[in-house]
Amino acid sequence: MNKPRILFWHRKDLRIIDNQALIKAFSLSNAITSTYILDENYSYDFNANSRAWFLANSLQELGINWKKMGSRLVIGEGDPVLIIPELAKTIDAKFVIWNKSIEPYEINRDLQIKNNLKGKNIQVIESWDHLLIEPSKIFSGSNTPYSVYGPFYKNLKSKMNLMGLYEEDKSIFLFKDIDNKFQENQKIKSSDSVLEKFIKSIKFSGSKICPCRPGEKAAEILLKNFINEKKIYSYNSSRDLPSYNGTSFLSASLRFGTISIRKVWNATLNLNEGFKNQENYLSIETWQKELVWREFYQHCLFHFPELERGAYRKKWDQFPWQNNNEWFQHWSNGETGVPIIDAAMRQLNSTGWMHNRCRMIVASFLVKDLICSWQMGEKKFMEMLVDGDLAANNGGWQWSASSGMDPKPLRIFNPYTQARKFDPICEYIKAWIPELSKVSNADLLSGEISNLEKNNYSRPIVNHNIQQRLFKSLYAEI
Ligand SMILES: Cc1cc2nc3c(=O)[nH]c(=O)nc-3n(C[C@H](O)[C@H](O)[C@H](O)COP(=O)(O)OP(=O)(O)OC[C@H]3O[C@@H](n4cnc5c(N)ncnc54)[C@H](O)[C@@H]3O)c2cc1C
């Protein structure tokens, strides 16, 4: 009996294991050709060097995995609205299958493709994969989408306790008898050259120091290390120390779907025997809460797509930003003269990643000290971050700007107080600003560095107290 041919479209799910749409595909047929399209309309993923690096390396591994299974990964470039229907026709697919997205552009693009394929009598099957709970299956008591994190977390956690989420390796056996008669369709021109060209175009020299690791295998190792090295048990206190590797570094893996969120969540469930005291218990819970922040921002963007374009609290669209471009450049380059800010921005610029505590400090500084619109920072982060993700990044910036869902009206971080609290012996500052390595900790933390010791390091471009007063007076206007 002939099996229906399937075109499987990888997007933010660059993996084989526990891939919901792929499991569906294999339940229908094992005659599958898979594809990934470098979408010219979604180019921010490959214009950001660190993400291009992560993406290319993950695709390389994924292609090898498909080959091992007797099939192939076709890599295309251009507009998926044109390419997907054409490819489906070329391989004579009866089904095109993918995992759903929450971003406004992707939702609209997918709709166009669905309409096109419908006209060709090709059936589209979509799944939810990127989230623990699909956004239309979790609502507040008043049956509306959530806009506050606390109650969202409570509800999601109670649902998680009831659900059997993930069964280890359930999907693997499905692949053993993949039908390799279909492995090479001569009508599809080789896609190796597209990947090769893409890899050659990447200018990211930080691959040795970026803590995130591309590919399915590496994501699995990151998760195992985070748990086996017992970092998860002290996460509650160590997650805020930028000089210590106390977090999982899984953000890019979750962003590109080289690991399943169900697998990650599941790994937190069976740790009960491991924890000995309240700190261990709290740490596991705090890490789960961070995973739910990721989920929350995606839920919000799905239900409030206007977040992509402006503030959630509309009054912030009227804020009289000063947007001083010179100051913005100093901030971008890590040359503000405020050590903790400069250390963090230099970490971002050279590794493509920045510690979460520092993301909050530099965001507050850009918005509340330099009085630049949060969208300028959001864009810079998107250009640099290996885990750059529309929902998480927008959520993080709106949280820091106080323009988002967070009910707290105004939150201003003092960068010097933050440094004293979270980098008290200046290990992080000295690691990223080597020219200050001889300066005393007290001077680094106060920012009052004598001219003799400066080594060309600049004076602070602004005074925090003066700027804070100015910001508050501007805020009073809106
Ligand atoms: C201004 C700003 C911008 C940000 N931009 C992004 C972004 O583009 N992409 C991104 O993935 N995260 C973003 N974050 C959230 C957070 O900083 C990173 O997810 C985290 O630092 C990644 O490191 P990790 O994987 O070691 O995290 P861990 O501490 O190990 O946390 C586990 C996972 O939980 C999720 N997570 C943790 N904290 C948050 C958070 N505050 N919001 C959403 N998800 C979270 C991530 O998927 C992370 O991998 C941003 C935060 C701020 C304040």
Report what the structure shows.
It is a single chain. The chain is mainly alpha-helical and 478 residues long. The protein has three domains: 1-129, Rossmann fold, CATH 3.40.50; 131-166 and 213-303, Alpha Horseshoe (Serine Threonine Protein Phosphatase 5, Tetratricopeptide repeat), CATH 1.25.40.80; 314-477, Orthogonal Bundle (DNA Cyclobutane Dipyrimidine Photolyase, subunit A, domain 3), CATH 1.10.579. The chain is 49% helix and 6% strand. It has 21 helices and five strands. The model has no long low-confidence stretch (mean pLDDT 91). Flavin-adenine dinucleotide (FAD) binds next to α10, α12, α15 and α17.
Any descriptors?
478 residues, mainly alpha, Rossmann fold, five-stranded parallel β-sheet, 21 helices, globular, binds flavin-adenine dinucleotide
In short:
The protein is mostly helical and 478 residues long. It folds into 3 domains: 1-129, Rossmann fold; 131-166 and 213-303, Serine Threonine Protein Phosphatase 5, Tetratricopeptide repeat (Alpha Horseshoe); 314-477, DNA Cyclobutane Dipyrimidine Photolyase, subunit A, domain 3 (Orthogonal Bundle).
